[in-house]
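Hey, resending since the last one bounced:
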Amino acid sequence: MNYIKNMEQEKALFLANEVTVQAGQIVSKTLAQNPHVSITLFAFGKGEEISSHDSSGDAMVLVLEGTGQFTVDGSEYVLGVGESLIMPAKKPHAVFAKEAFKMLLTVVFPSAT
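The C-alpha cells again:
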C-alpha cells in the first residue's frame, strides 16, 4: 500500500513539474490525505486566490516556482522559490498569486485524544 499517491515511487523528480499552471485556475494534486496530515501540490494562475479561511492544523507552504502572497492573521508575506511559511492552526490565512506560482502545502492536524 502506498501512503503517498499520484506520483511515481522510487523515482527522482522535480515537484514543480508534477503540477501545471493553467491561466484563470488553481490546480491541485493531492499526494496524501488522512486524519493526521494532508500534502497537496498547487499551481496558481496569475491573479488567482484562495480567500481567507482557517484550519484545525498547522499549514506549511513551500514555494516551488514563482512568487506567492500569503496573508496570515492580517500580516502579509511575499515568498519566492525555496521559501516557506507556517500558518498556525486556527489563524485566518489567504493565498494570492501576484504571478503564476506553484507551492507544496503540508497540513499537520492535531491528534485525537
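The radius of gyration is 14 Å.

Sorry for the duplicate.
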